[in-house]
Write a structure and sequence with these properties.
Layout: H1 7-35, H2 41-53, H3 57-76, H4 78-98, H5 109-129, H6 137-147, H7 153-172, H8 175-200, E1 202-209, H9 212-223, E2 228-233, E3 240-248, H10 250-263, E4 268-274
Antiparallel strand pairs: 1-3, 1-4, 2-3
């Protein structure tokens, strides 16, 4: 509670909020709003209210968020709540102050559904990665994910959205509104999972060499990464070798591979994908997910 405020983290959060808020507003107000369908979530409810009574989309979203936020604070914590409300304000501001003054998309509704899904999913993934959300059913989504971290965030979001999408059928007067909403939901869930999986994934290097300590020293000096050195015996030659194991980021893996061949031209390097890495320099093992 008494930790000093990290201004670098705060500024990075706001940059993410700006980008995510713009993408979110473009998806909801420009594409979905112009194609007359509800894409799900609280924003879908806000679009329905806007269609029926011309209420501001962003304002309605913020008003609905308040009771949902208060109800979820016991599950997600005050920090997540504060971050999410700030992100919600960014999204609402872009919707009501910028996109409400611009003409909406008037092209193919299917294209509108596709772009809504991609932009909306990208926006929510950016917020999730910063321990925030766009509010609304996201509060319920993260509450469920906090209690059941093995469940996919995208799948939880999609399940909650289906109910709201169906409400758009009588409002917009066409089954197409439901179909477009379903397309958006599937694409949103897919985009969220793909972006979040890629952001948390790393690489595992397995290097078989005679100069393991030299390569390990290079990795430590140039990449600030630790490694594990294991003695091994070649089954074909019977000679003693060393196996060096190193978890690293995608940006570091190619530099380490190149350095390994400079140090030992006869080494063997195997690169594998790791979906998640916990420990120093990676994700905190005490946290069940990014929202703790």
């Amino acid at each position: 509670m008494n930790q000093p405020l990290n201004w670098k983290t705060v500024m990075l959060d706001q940059i993410y909020n700006l980008v995510a808020g713009f993408l979110y507003a473009a998806a909801i107000s420009y594409f979905a709003g112009g194609a007359d369908f509800a894409p799900g979530g609280v924003s879908g409810i806000a679009l329905i209210c806007n269609h029926l009574w011309r209420w501001p989309i962003g304002l309605v979203t913020v008003l609905i968020n308040i009771p949902l936020a208060l109800g979820s604070v016991f599950f997600v914590g005050k920090l997540f709540l504060i971050r999410s409300m700030i992100s919600t304000v960014y999204c609402a501001a872009f919707q009501d102050l910028l996109f409400s003054r611009l003409p909406t998309y008037s092209g193919d509704p299917l294209l509108a559904a596709l772009f809504t899904g991609v932009l909306w999913g990208a926006a929510m993934a950016l917020l999730y990665m910063r321990g925030s959300s766009s509010g609304g059913t996201d509060f319920l989504t993260v509450s469920i994910n906090t209690r059941r971290p093995h469940l996919s965030v995208g799948v939880i979001t999609g399940a909650l959205d289906v109910v709201i999408i169906l409400l758009g059928w009588p409002v917009f007067g066409s089954i197409d509104a439901v179909l477009y909403g379903m397309v958006t939901t599937v694409l949103t869930s897919f985009t969220i999972d793909k972006i979040m999986a890629r952001s948390s994934s790393s690489k595992m290097l397995t290097i078989i060499t005679n100069k393991g300590q030299h390569i390990a020293d290079w990795i430590s000096r140039n990449c600030d990464r630790g490694s594990t050195l294991v003695k091994a015996t070649g089954t074909f030659t019977g000679s003693e070798r060393q196996i060096l194991l190193c978890a690293c980021t995608r940006l570091q893996v190619y530099a380490i591979r190149a350095a390994a061949y400079v140090i030992d031209p006869h080494c063997m390097v195997m690169i594998s994908e790791t979906s998640e890495v916990y420990g120093e320099g990676f994700r905190d093992p005490k946290k069940k997910n990014n929202f703790s």
